[in-house]
Amino acid sequence: MQLIIIRGVKCLIQVQDLTKTYNGKVQAVKGVSFEVEPGEIFGFLGPNGAGKTTTVRILSGLMDPTSGTATVAGAPIPGDRQQLHRLIGVLFENSYLYETMTGKELLQFFGDLYRQPRKLVDELLELVEMTPKANELIKKYSKGMKQRIAFARALLPQPRVLFLDEPTSGLDPASAVRLREVVRETAAQGTTVFLTTHNMDEADDLCNRVAIINEGVIVAMDSPTALKESFSDRTIAIMMQDGTNNILTLNDPDLNQKMAALIGQGVVKINTVEPSLEDVFIRMTGRGLQ
Asked: 198 or 105: which carries more pLDDT confidence?
């Protein structure tokens, strides 16, 4: 499948001072600004109620902002939603599928709506490795198979921007790995991927950059590697002869004294503990992943 690449476009998503206020009182998004480049996998992370779902709904044309502007694949927001929906694909966590159809029938139905050639359906079925099951009823599919068909449906418009909301939630490990591979393949062909997930390992593995939003404000944005290096304390784990573990931070001003004291008590093993994206997330939001 050959996806469309926009030539000469620096950013496929541009967001400037975006806000959303509900009922004139609750401000869910507070002046958010960022840009996402063609072919980039951009993670948008935050605890529940932080404003990430509202932001995604605005960018995918499901609601208008209270103020601020955005463009997605050149389409202005707020603006012509039909124009926008011809340029994007969307996969929500609980995508509805017509379960009395076969997987192939479903894709052909939506392909006809987008006026796409039938051969694209076959290419997408192959991409998500569903060709052998294409003629089975969707109601007989496993959760992982349904998610792969939903992913293929999101690719039917040959989108320039693909919004993915918890794409691997509830999948078995093998299905999750395959879906991540398809996400990479899609981005490699020039499609911008906007990913929301609670899976920090997934975000670390997939994303070129991530933004962390908390209470409607972006509190950190960079590559996962840079964020881990900047916001997490590097630590070492010291295993003692009595089986206990001691965790020390490398920037502790009393590190040498503490190390000397522990060595005198009998050290079995010393390991460096690498910071995780989850460590950054908790430090920046003050909350866990729920």
From this structure: 105
User: In the prediction, which pLDDT does 249 show?
Assistant: 60
Confidence band for 246, pLDDT divided at 50, 70 and 90 = low
Q: Which domain holds residue 152?
A: 96-158
Assigned domain for 265 exists: yes
pLDDT at 9: 53
Are 72 and 165 contained in the same domain?
A: yes
Instruction: Give the whole-angstrom CA distance, residue 14 versus residue 145.
Output: 33
Write phi, then psi, for 11 (nearest 5 degrees): -130, 130
**pTM summary value:** 0.82
Number of CB atoms found within 10 A of residue 62's CB: 14
136 in Cβ contact with 103 (< 8 Å): yes
Would the CA dihedral through 14, 224, 161, 46 be positive or negative?
negative
Percent of the chain with pLDDT over 70: 83
The pLDDT value recorded for residue 161 is: 96
SS3 51: coil
Structure tokens at 104: 């192939």
The answer to whether 158 and 188 have CB atoms below 8 angstroms apart is no
Neighbour-count burial for 118-138, b at 16+ CB within 10 Å, e otherwise:
eebbbebbebbebeebbeeeb
Query: Could you give the 3-state DSSP secondary structure of residue 37?
Result: coil
